[in-house]
Amino acid sequence: MFRTIAFIGCGSIGSALARLSVEAGLDVVVSNSRGPHTLGRVVTELGGHACAATCTEAAVAGDLVVVTIPYGAYRTLPVDILAGRIVVDTMNYYPERDERVPELDVGEVTSSELLQRHLVDAHVVKAVNNVDYIRLTSAARPPGAPDRSALPIAGDDPDAKSTVAEYLSRIGYDAVDIGALVESWRSEPGTPIYLDAYLPRAPRGMDEERARRWFRTAPNVPVPAARVRELVADAVRAGARRGTFTGLPPGFVATIEGTEFTVL
């Protein structure tokens, strides 16, 4: 059903997913806004199942296309090339980092719905947006493991969601279908399933350096599918963090502060 996973964006989440994909026996094509010549070290670390390309070349090559760029750059994604393809949307909207979008600020629409409107003929599935890159790697487990975690997914196309669920299973996670893209706000920043569920409670009173160290070394907390369903059901849309990094795990903000990206 799928063999090659393409990554548009190769930051912390993209690199972690690429590594998990290679470990699962999949081929990966990685890309970023600076060009394939800047990804030599990443490709070397990933090994023979990986290669670097331009963002456009990656979009053409992938059976699944994973988008891991700052949300403010989503309009640069190639509409024609991604038509008919399954696009895994890992992006989150942070107005302190991204261009402000009034419809998102007031909750009229979800960030993934806006992406789907842009990629009108693609099949967008929201996934892997609610866990940080360190826990994403450390929490991966084989099927049937007692401490295997689950991740929520949302999308308008049932077949696309099934494919993404299979991909998540290959890389170490169960998938919980939380509905159409209109429901994807339930895993957006500020909701119970976003980041904190997969982390232990942070110690109080840490300075910036200790916070960064804690974030890098904190163990993962297993979140099984039943718990994901509970947390998603408990989400309150007014509770989403609109325009602030306040309340995010200590040390996390530094991993999402980059803003410059363009595909075209």
UniProtKB/TrEMBL annotation:
Domain Pyrroline-5-carboxylate reductase catalytic N-terminal: residue ranges: 4-93
Pfam families: F420_oxidored (PF03807)
Leader sequence residues: none
InterPro entries per record: NAD(P)-bd_dom_sf, P5C_Rdtase_cat_N, STEAP_metalloreductase
Domain of life: Bacteria
Protein's UniProt keywords contain Oxidoreductase: yes
Keywords, ordered alphabetically: Oxidoreductase
Protein name: Pyrroline-5-carboxylate reductase catalytic N-terminal domain-containing protein
Molecular function via GO: oxidoreductase activity
